[in-house]
Write a structure and sequence with these properties.
- With 227 residues, the chain is an alpha/beta fold.
- 21% of the residues lie in helices and 28% in strands.
- It has one domain: 4-Layer Sandwich (Metallo-beta-lactamase, Chain A), CATH 3.60.15.10.
- Bound molecules: zinc ion.
- The site of zinc ion (ZN) has 5 residues, from loops.
Length: 227
C-alpha cells in the first residue's frame, strides 16, 4: 500500500509539473533497481545508469537476477565510475555477448556525442565531478523529450550541479543532498530522488514533498511529456 501511495504521489507530481496538455500521453518510465542503478525507457531507447553492478557490493542493495534476464537487446549502459556498487565488468561482458548494446563510462565519455546524434530527442552530457576514491567520476545531465534528469552518482560536489537550471528530476546520493542542505546551496530541480541508500537505512522526517527517498527497489517513476 505504501508503494502504491508513493507511486500515485509521484505520478500526480509529475503531471502537475509537466504542463500536461492535449498531446499524446507519452512518458519516460524510470525504474529504480538499487544503489544508483536505474532503468529508463521512452518505449524506444532502453537506457541503464550504473547498472549492472555487483549485487550486494559494499553492503549496498542486492537485486534479483531476473533483472539481468529482462535486459533488452541493444540497450545503452552509462556509468558514473567503475566501483563495484555501480559497475560489473563481468556481468557487462556477458550481457554484451548476448544482447549487444553500447557501454559508456568514465573512459569514453567523448563518444557520447555519437549516441546523442543517433537517438531522437535525447542528449546526455557528461559532467566531470569529484569522488574521493577515484580520479575519474562523471555525473550526467540527460535531456530527453525536453525533460531534464540529473544523475549524481557518488560525487559530493555541488559546484557543477548548482549551476544547472530547470532540472525536472535530480537523482542525488544522500551525502550530496546533505551537503546542499548544510551549505544552503539551492538546486534548481522540481523533484529530488535520493538514491544510493543502504538496504536498512533510516530516513528522517520533515523533508519537503518534492524530496523522495528511493528505499523501495523496483519502484517506478513516470515523467509524462508532450510531443
Ligand atoms: Zn557508490
Amino acid at each position: 500500500m505504501k508503494n502504491i501511495k508513493k507511486y500515485i504521489f509521484l505520478i500526480i507530481s509529475f503531471i502537475i509539473i509537466s504542463n500536461f496538455g492535449f498531446g499524446q500521453n507519452n512518458e519516460i518510465k524510470i525504474k529504480f533497481i538499487g544503489n544508483c542503478g536505474l532503468y529508463m525507457t521512452d518505449g524506444d531507447l532502453n537506457l541503464y545508469l550504473d547498472f549492472p553492478y555487483k549485487s550486494g557490493a559494499h553492503n549496498y542493495m542486492e537485486y534479483d537476477s531476473s533483472e539481468l534476464d529482462s535486459i533488452s537487446n541493444n540497450s545503452v549502459f552509462i556509468f558514473t565510475h567503475r566501483h563495484s556498487d555501480h559497475y560489473s565488468k563481468k556481468i557487462l561482458r556477458k550481457i554484451k555477448k548476448e544482447h549487444e548494446g553500447k557501454v559508456f563510462g568514465n573512459w569514453n565519455t567523448t563518444e557520447l556525442n555519437e549516441l546523442n546524434n543517433s537517438v531522437n530527442d535525447f542528449t546526455v552530457k557528461a559532467i566531470k565531478t569529484s569522488h574521493k576514491f577515484t580520479f575519474k567520476h562523471f555525473s550526467y545531465l540527460i535531456t530527453w523529450h525536453n525533460k531534464k534528469i540529473y544523475i549524481s552518482g557518488d560525487t559530493g560536489s555541488l559546484e557543477e550541479l548548482s549551476k544547472l537550471k530547470g532540472i525536472d528530476l535530480a537523482f542525488m546520493n544522500p551525502w550530496l543532498f546533505m551537503n546542499a542542505e548544510k551549505e544552503k546551496v539551492t538546486i534548481d530541480a522540481k523533484m529530488f530522488g535520493i538514491y544510493h541508500l543502504y538496504p536498512d537505512q533510516k530516513i528522517g522526517e520533515g523533508f519537503p514533498d518534492n524530496v523522495h527517498f528511493l528505499t523501495e527497489q523496483n519502484e517506478i517513476i513516470l515523467i509524462p511529456y508532450n510531443n
